[in-house]
Amino acid sequence: MDLGLFAQYVMNGLMLGMMYALVAVGFTLFFGVLDVIKFSHGDVVTVGAFTALAAFAGLHQLGFNSPWLDLVVMLVAGMLAMAALGMLIARYLVMPLRSAPALNTLLITLMLGTVLRESVRLFYPQGGNPKPFPALLPRNSIDLGSFNLRLDNVLMLAAGGLVVVGLQFLLNRTKLGLAIRAVAQDEETARTMGINFTAIVLVTFAIGSGLAAFAGVMNGLYYNEINFGIGLYLGVIGFSAAIIGGLGSIYGAILGGFLFAGLQTIGTVLLPFASAYKDVFAFAVVIAIMAWRPTGLIQEKISERV
Amino acid sequence: MNGYEPMAEGAERGEKAPAPLWPGLAALAAATGYLIALLAAENQAFIISLLAAGIAAVLAAAWLRLLDRASRSFMDHEDALAGCAVVAALAVAAYFHEDHFVLLLVITVLLYTVATLGLNIQFGYAGVLNFAGASFFGIGAYTSAVLNAHTAIPHLIVLAFGGVLAALIGSLLLLPVLRTRGHYAAVVTIAFALLFKTFLEVNDVLGGPQGMQVPGMKILGWTFNDNIEIGKISLSFYMNYYVVSLLLLIGAFVVVRRLERSWIGLNLDALRLDETAASCFGLDVVRWKITAFLIGNFLIGIAGALFGMVGSFVAPNNYTFADSLILVSILLLGGIGNPWGLIVATFIVVIVPEKLQTIQEYRFLLYALLVIAVLLFRPEGLLPRPVRRYFPGWRP
Amino acid sequence: MIRTGKIITAGLMAAVLVLAAGAANAKDKVKVGFIGPLTGGVAVNGIGGRNSADLAVKLRNADPKAKYEYELVVLDDECKPNVAVQVATKMAADKDIIAAATHYCSATAIATVDTYHKFGFPVIVWGAVLPDITYRNKYAEVHRVNGTMINQNDANAELISKLGYKTVAVIHDTTDYGKGHNEYFSKALAKIGKAKIVGTFGVTAEQQDFTAELTQIKALNPDVIYFGGLTPIGVRIRSQMDKLGIKAVFDATSGIVSDAYIQGLGPLAEGTLAFREGAPTEKLPGGKFFIEKYNAQKYDNPPEAYGAFAYAAMDMILNTIEKVGPDRKKVIDDLGNVKDRDSIVGKITFDDHGQNTVAVITKYVIQDGKFVEWDESEYASGKRKLPGQK
Predict the structure, then answer these.
(1) I need a labelling partner for C53 at 20 to 30 A (CA). Which of B43, B260, B283, C212 fits?
(2) Looking at beta carbons, which residues of chain A come within 8 Å of B321?
(3) What is the CB neighbour count within 10 angstroms for residue C285?
(4) CB-based contact (8 Å) between A45 and chain C?
(5) Is the dihedral of CA C134, C138, C142, C145 positive or negative?
(6) What range defines the domain where residue B55 resides?
């Protein structure tokens, strides 16, 4: 395989990995803070993407046509709306069930994901059909041999990287981050230290859901299309990625995201006759990893009260 | 010693006089009549008013404590009432003997109930999460498709094969399922559900996305796919499948009830409620989980094999993760661990959207909302599982 | 007392007479069916077909010479084979529905032929082009008014070879529709012998990401990429081709002849080739009549490429029921003898497999956001050039 083709595969893998990593980070954040898996996270990505699309349509109605303005407004609208949605979900669906068996939360969030997905399909005009997403990033590209390096891919990778770095900065260098990490480590002690538990949980959900909206817009820009089903797929992959990397660890989530994308790319290369097999391959590997390391590659320390 | 009253005969064992039979019979008869009316109705306005009347009647009965009486008589006379339920099912079939579509609907309910009973063993009794129920259903269906079309194996044995294959493929998942808990276990079965559908779609050998036709069932030369004519009465060919499905459901129901009341069921309950304590008492946790998982998948596989023959068509799109979620919703709605609750919930989930054409499009949304409401406000489901009886005649 | 009694009786008799007279004038109701993809990626075609069938029923009900009053029962097959079998079973099991015009998607049409045969339900296909639908079995119940994909792929191979292209990569979807296109195009291209196929790739109908296939295709560097599939993945493949910098000609089939393709791609749609059996709607014998009546009804969607065929199918069903009455067996017998019957798409004759022959193949190229006939386009005259055109 020549270098250009190899570079093309690497680029594809990096793009996918960035999107999965963003979703996986959300899962990990929620788990760390509330010990809960919010299965509807993937569908929040879908809703975020559709909100951004609606914002775009709205902007066009009003006559604004500059791509950069469009992009910024879409991102802001999507992220703010999803932050609000995330907070609502936390407040009314997840927090009341904290004392119930973990199974109930899992089921309720799964069903909530279905509600979000079906709502988009039914209530967004023609939601059942795939919708073209505007190509707002510059389309220049350079040809390096048989490798076509596109400016918009580079921009998206850079933006994703910045977001991840920004998140790390937030968590490790600010007071808010300290509070989040404290709550994730030990809820009761954090409360005795004067941290407002509910507020921190809501803020964490807001951050995670905002990230989801960002991932949704990125997905739309990459494929130039969004449809109501992308959330389910991204959600399961993001969840698997978070689990592979070990729940509760941001680095693990990012690692898991790129690992999953890597698995898919390896699958495509090894099985060139049907690229859909890449999903079969990747999921099979996930199941195998779960059999080998039941709590992910980075072991989670569990203690059980008997 | 003042105020000491001698206890009634058998009272130290908690025995009270058995409840009368008639409340259960009345409830069963009312339900059957209502079902026939609902299935026969065509006019949308009439259907909506019928549904509203039904809900109102149930709420009124609950308020008037009539439901309590009916459930107590069910508990005491379960076998007799189960027999009456079978008679009721045959009555429904007799009423609709010419109507293809209604019979098909009821067959769907019967087979989904069998599948959910399998899921119940895994989930309700042993606490093993299985989000890939529709995939095992699909394994059974594809087995009947392939075996019916390419081999001459008698079709009843094909059904058993469907179950066996589902159990075998399920055993591939055993290692991850046994080693994981909670949400990690959920990921394993969800990943399998997605993997299975993609695998079927990509694979041309099994028909790919186009699916496969399934030849109809033939037992001892009697072809199931031909309409039956008995003298002047002509019966829809679905009657054949109806009888077989009913027999399957009766078999599965009996097995599940016996299982629950036996020491096997006791072991499963113990290990669901507290694994550590159960293993302290010497229960082999691994062995029971495997048993529950395999038996559950076997039931689901058989139901799938029969359903494949009824529908005469299998395709990957019938067995997606969303379909697995529907089976789980039925389980939650009906009450985890209660087989009667499952029957009621399956009826609601399968028949109401078909009748209410206006909500057909919204049915996934409505199921999900309904399950969320149930989980928030009544996590035990419509018919919660009654407390286990340790002595005959004992009632809480 | 007796007088009141007489008045009441007289009143009752009058009422009965009025009702009887009214009943004598009321026509018997007959139900006919329509199945098409009303939701999902190709919904615009299904809705266009449904509107056209609805137009046929409406025009017939407005005709005072009609013997029956018709009601159209519409079901959605979502372009998915399993849903199609369910709705086909539902419609065929309902003894009140006499006949139906069915299916745009070939994947659904081929899955349901056995169902219609099982229930003895006569259908006329209006949009699906897979030959197997009528030719795999000899079912008396199944007929089709539109053509099959064999002719369009012959014309396709001919044009590609004539334009001097040498290498072709084939992408097709893995339903029987895509596989059919692959089969007939490969045969036609091999028969002409000037171009050769350098790679064949199967993709699933809901696939999102084609970078894997397209990266391999880029390494093969073909002149033409032939696509056998429907609009939603056609849009995705074309746009991802551009992302990877592949500059081949995008050569597709009747599956993308739809405004949704142009809307989905914008300027990228320019220069796409497509083929279709049957003349464009305006040039059909009854085309102007159809378009005029369609627009008068003010439907929300246009009839799309196969609307005229849906109208013709439904119209034939209605004519047959008028002739032999609402009886499924009699309708099947009559549809077995269709020879040179008039319709808006020309004279229809069903061969022994129920297939109509449509001789004309229209060649399209997308020019300036519209489907333009090849011979009238600037690409044919040489003013514009497709990538690699000499």
Answers:
(1) B43
(2) 232
(3) 14
(4) no
(5) positive
(6) 14-95
